[in-house]
Design brief:
heterodimer, A: about 70 residues, mainly beta, 1 helix, globular, B: about 260 residues, alpha/beta
Chain lengths: ~70, ~260
């Protein structure tokens, strides 16, 4: 099972890997970031309800300079 | 003092945070210019990197208010999703709405911007739309609830200044109650000053400061220009005349020609 995390292929640890577990495993714990799965924003309060499966696209965005 | 969605800011200069030579120079520019509101964005975070948090910390240390943007979005869905993500990360409902129509000119897409603004306002956002200087679309955005409208001076990053002085002045005259901010394209301090003399409420710029040889001095130059332009507008600028009008009194002028 492969998912895309910020455009890079990542092997999932299970058929349905919890989003919180995936983020922690990849080092996205703490700090300021927001998550979208398959183009839909997932609020932090809902991270625990979501699991990632094969071919899902996960975007993890953080503050950046901008004009 | 300018009021944006009920919040008062002493500085009418809004700066972008991109393209500076270093975070230290960016910090000096923000501090020396007296700017209180900066634009920021969201981008992919490297796993375990923490770069985003460090940048955000820099802004927080300076007690700056942030205006997240939706730069790079071409569709309503992208812009709306980005806005929701920005609201969570930056803990603000303010959003600079950018929906781009053309990658070469970075011209905003008026119809999609309007559609996205509607959706975001319904979701509780305070929308700052980046838009062209078209009176009809600016009015429509204002009517649906955008208290602040941000017409472009010129395409982003060009430094061409205010390419449509007539359109921008008409906009100011025809929308006296809207808060209007010239956003994008400003290249020189005099561009910023001119917009303020026309009665614009603020200016937003980035590249003109960030890529100058001395960004800190340029940031202060823009701050002075914005303040001067606003003071001129408030003092009342004289209308131009077609003919010369002596400023020194004619009464009491000596007759110094020798007798003929």
């Amino acid at each position: 099972m492969i998912a895309s995390i910020n455009g890079k292929e990542v092997a999932l640890a299970a058929e349905q890997e919890p989003l919180t577990a995936l983020l922690a495993r990849l080092g996205y714990d703490g700090g300021h970031f927001a998550v979208a799965v398959n183009g839909a924003f997932i609020a932090k309060s809902r991270h625990g309800e979501i699991s990632i499966q094969n071919a899902d696209r996960v975007e993890v965005l953080a503050p950046m300079v901008g004009g | 003092m300018v009021t944006l969605y009920g919040e008062k800011l002493a500085s009418r200069l809004i700066l972008g945070t991109a393209r500076y030579p270093s975070p230290a120079i960016l910090a000096s520019c923000l501090e020396q210019s007296g700017c209180q509101l900066v634009t920021v964005s969201l981008r992919r975070e490297t796993a375990g990197g923490g770069d985003g948090s460090r940048f955000y910390q820099l802004l927080k240390e300076q007690n700056l208010k942030v205006l997240p943007n939706t730069a790079g979005c071409h569709t309503v869905d992208e812009a709306v999703t980005t806005a929701h993500m920005a609201r969570e990360v930056f803990a603000t409902s303010w959003i600079k709405l950018e929906v781009i129509a053309d990658d070469d000119t970075l011209q905003p897409h008026p119809i999609r911007t309007l559609d996205a603004a509607r959706e975001l306002i319904a979701a509780g956002f305070k929308v700052f739309p980046y838009i062209t200087d078209d009176l009809a679309i600016c009015r429509e955005l204002y009517t649906i609830g955008c208290e602040v409208i941000m017409p472009w001076g010129a395409p982003i990053g060009t430094g061409k200044g205010l390419v449509n002085p007539y359109g921008l002045q008409v906009l100011r005259e025809r929308m006296p109650d809207a808060t209007l901010i010239v956003d994008a394209g400003i290249g020189r301090p005099s561009d910023a000053c001119r917009a303020m003399e026309w009665g614009y409420d603020a200016v937003l710029l980035n590249t003109a400061v960030a890529v100058s040889h001395d960004p800190v001095t340029m940031a202060t130059a823009f701050a002075s220009a914005v303040a001067a332009g606003r003071a001129g507008y408030e003092a009342g600028i004289m209308p131009p005349r077609e003919r010369a009008h002596a400023s020194t009194p004619v009464v009491g002028l000596a007759e110094l020609l020798p007798p003929t």
